Amino acid sequence: MLLLSLLLTSLFHSSLYELLRVGRVKIFDVIQRFYILPWILKGLRVFYKSPTLFHAKFKLQSLPFTQSLPACIVVAVALIFSHKRFSSTMAATPVTVNPPSIEVPAAAGNCSLELTNSAAEVRYCFKVKSTDNAHYRVKPVFGFVEAGGAGQLEVTRLAGPPSNDDRLEILFLPVDADTPDPKAPFSAGTSPAFVLDVPLIAQ
Asked: What is the dihedral of CA 115, 117, 122, 125, to 10 degrees?
């Protein structure tokens, strides 16, 4: 049981290290964007109440295995979930977005996003989705990022209440050089090759 506890702790630490290693991503943005903080806190809260861990740290009498097993299961699920979110999101993608997040006045404002394709031989089409279509407008919604090239998005915020929990989701698919319509590949229901999330903060 102690070995399981150590393995779970190691998994959490490796995920955290992976996050810290990616310098261009702000800790606050990641926590806010992927909602991993509640999972980690809940898991650790239960984990550090585990009798087995207390026994290992403070030499107290351990309770039976069956009483501490549920706590470890909860921690395992929480850490595996957060680790998958870290791995899938922090993995390098051929297209990057700059700036990585948008801050605009809640009263109204606009911002430009630049999409840069580092793949020298792969052309991508993209589709932009928003968690708040009532207060945000994006142009274009569909488009291409040429191989080794760049594209631009214009994001407009309409007047409304402050909000810091919205985001843009930019879906990407590789396409042939002669594909004329960026919308068509998404109409087939194909899963995107990767997705970039851009937090939207209106104050």
From this structure: 0
Q: Write down all domains in the chain, each with its CATH number in brackets.
A: 2-90 (no CATH), 95-202 (2.60.40.10)
Q: What's the token pair of residue 121?
A: 């031989």
Contacts of 33 by beta carbon, 8 Å cutoff, 6+ apart: 167, 197, 199
Instruction: Give the dihedral of Cα atoms 153, 173, 182, 187; nearest 10 deg.
Output: -120
- Going across the sheet that includes 163-175, the strands are 102-104, 194-202, 163-175, 123-130, 142-145
Closest CA to 25 of 14, 16, 12: 16
pLDDT, tens digit, 9 for 90 and up, residues 68-123: 555 555 445 544 444 444 444 445 899 999 999 999 999 999 999 999 999 999 99
pLDDT in tens, 25-63: 444 444 444 445 555 555 555 455 555 544 444 444 444
